[in-house]
Specification:
The protein has four domains: about 120 residues, Adenine-n6-DNA-methyltransferase TaqI, Chain A, domain 2, CATH 3.90.220; about 140 residues; about 120 residues, DNA methylase specificity domains (Adenine-n6-DNA-methyltransferase TaqI, Chain A, domain 2, Alpha-Beta Complex), CATH 3.90.220; about 80 residues, Arc Repressor Mutant, subunit A (Orthogonal Bundle). It has 13 helices and 21 strands. The two termini are about 35 Å apart. About 5% of the residues have low confidence.
């Protein structure tokens, strides 16, 4: 933090409101409705409601999850799902809410205990406070850099999507025979290779159907046999990374954890594990146990079948899953495909993997770049709140701004706005000369720096008051200054006063 910044607490800058008045009554959301229902968590927008009452529109605001301390900056009307949050608002227009929000993104607390954090902990945490014009410049630069970063991330995500499309295109071309056209031209007698394959998978050669590539029509059940996973189900789900045997599912998580159980381990690899309800698949070439019986373990029916190629074949043969049922026996195993001879299977697999390995390398680089982008986002924020984001020339320009004032004065002004006393009506007709006692009483309350123009207002002096009243006010004010009751200094083209600290009074 730079020397011309000061520390303050969140509660110096923000006030909170409970969200009770804005909780949605019905969770029957629809995208056709207009009002978003928010949470401070990752989902952010839970849905949309058509309720017209209890809409929060005192914007902008920070929504703060009182249990996880997650935050969102919101600048549009909304309702909320629950009361497990605080609505954080600036205490006055001297608070740059966007600046405070960005600092919150790098200011975490240990929230391992289930309790509400805003009042007890977070509001009392300190944050660096620069001059207001510098805050604006910092926020502008953060958002410029974030915009550039977001564009880069969008391009990376687009590249990831293009890789998915390319992978599918490679597989489709492979199983249309396009990747092995040249191979077939020099492979010799394709009919003999097909006949050998037909014999190897026990299809009646008299009824066998071949396509123009001499590939044989068959179903998945001609090529793959299944085993129920019952005897390989793990007994104890207290996993540990130090154990050796992975416990698998065919879903996205794939490896659920590791077990030290030494019995019931599947070792007849390689195989395909097939989720019997979702039809998700994984190719597995290492020993394993499974989490549940909701799968089939698929292996080749003969040594004329390359199981890894069939794994790829399944990826381009989706089925319509309209009901919750087991799909392998009733549907998927009956699907018809054209399958080449084993030598061409091996060649197709080589062609696929040579191309997909390039995709894998590109995807690794994309993932690394995405992680780097997120680290860079944190680095930008860290640099900003250390006072190192703006260049020397940018700081010079900031300090030329007519509204520039020190951070210390800014905080004093925020506190003054927060604790501004109610106007005291002193100058009633015929009694204005009695003001001296009242003025002294008012000054006694001014423990923070306060502009004289505000003191004048608090004394009830308005624009059309008698000029003699103003003159007497300033004469008496001068006496208070000369007697060291108050002190005065010039700030941003205006005189400010406060009660002289006791230790400095004479």
């Amino acid at each position: 933090m730079r020397k011309d910044w000061i520390k303050c607490k969140y509660q110096d800058l923000l006030e909170f409101e409970q969200p009770s008045n804005y909780i949605v009554n019905s969770t029957n959301y629809s995208d056709e409705y207009n009002i978003p229902v928010l949470t401070a968590g990752k989902t952010f927008i839970l849905g949309y409601t058509d309720e017209e009452a209890g809409i929060f529109n005192n914007l902008p605001v920070i929504i703060f999850d009182d249990f996880t301390t997650a935050t969102k900056y919101v600048n549009f009307p909304f309702k909320v799902k629950s009361s497990a949050m605080k609505l954080l608002k600036p205490k006055c227009n001297l608070v740059n809410l966007r600046y405070v929000f960005y600092y919150m993104q790098i200011d975490s607390v240990h929230n391992e205990t289930h309790k509400r954090f805003w009042i007890s902990t977070y509001s009392k945490k300190q944050l660096p406070l620069p001059p207001l014009v510098e805050q604006r410049a910092i926020v502008a630069k953060i958002e410029q850099l974030f915009s550039d970063l977001d564009n880069g991330i969008a391009n990376l995500m687009k590249a990831k999507e293009q890789l998915k499309i390319y992978r599918q295109a490679v597989l489709i071309k492979a199983f249309e025979g396009d990747l092995t056209k040249e191979w077939r031209a020099y492979a010799g007698n394709l009919q003999e290779l097909a006949n050998e394959f037909i014999k190897g998978i026990n299809i009646d050669s008299k009824v066998a159907i071949l396509n123009h590539n001499f590939w044989v029509e068959c179903s998945f059940e001609n090529l793959l046999e299944y085993e129920q996973p019952t005897k390989y189900i793990v007994h104890n789900t207290e996993y540990n990374k130090e154990f050796n045997v992975p416990v698998l599912t065919a879903g996205k998580s794939f490896i659920k954890g590791y077990t030290n159980e030494s019995f019931g381990i599947f070792e007849d690899i390689p195989v395909i594990i097939f989720d019997d309800f979702t039809t998700a698949t994984k190719y597995v070439d290492f020993r394993f146990k499974v989490k549940s019986s909701a799968m089939k373990i698929l292996r080749p029916t003969s040594n004329h079948v390359n199981v890894k190629l069939l794994y790829y074949y399944i990826q381009v043969n989706p089925i319509n899953k309209d009901t919750h049922k087991r799909y392998w026996i009733s549907v998927f195993s009956k699907k018809k495909i054209f399958m080449p001879s084993l030598p061409e299977q091996v060649q197709i697999l080589n062609e696929i993997e040579s191309r997909l390995s390039v995709c894998d390398n590109v995807e690794v680089n994309i993932e690394a770049s995405l992680k780097k982008a997120e680290s860079l986002r944190q680095s930008i924020l860290k640099k900003a709140f250390e006072g190192k984001l703006l260049t020397a020339s940018e700081l010079i320009e900031v300090r030329k701004d007519n509204e520039w004032e020190s951070a210390e004065i800014l905080l004093e002004r925020i506190k003054f706005e927060k604790k501004k006393p109610q106007p005291i009506k002193l100058f009633q007709e015929g009694y204005w000369r009695k003001k001296m006692v009242k003025l002294e009483a008012l000054v006694e309350e001014l423990i923070n720096w306060t502009p004289i123009s505000e003191v004048v207002k608090q004394c009830g002096i308005v624009d059309n008051v008698n000029s003699e009243v103003i003159e007497i006010f300033y004469m008496d004010l001068k006496k208070l200054i000369n007697s060291n009751t108050i002190t005065i200094k010039r700030i941003a083209n205006e005189d400010w006063i406060r009660k002289e600290p006791k230790e400095q009074s004479k």
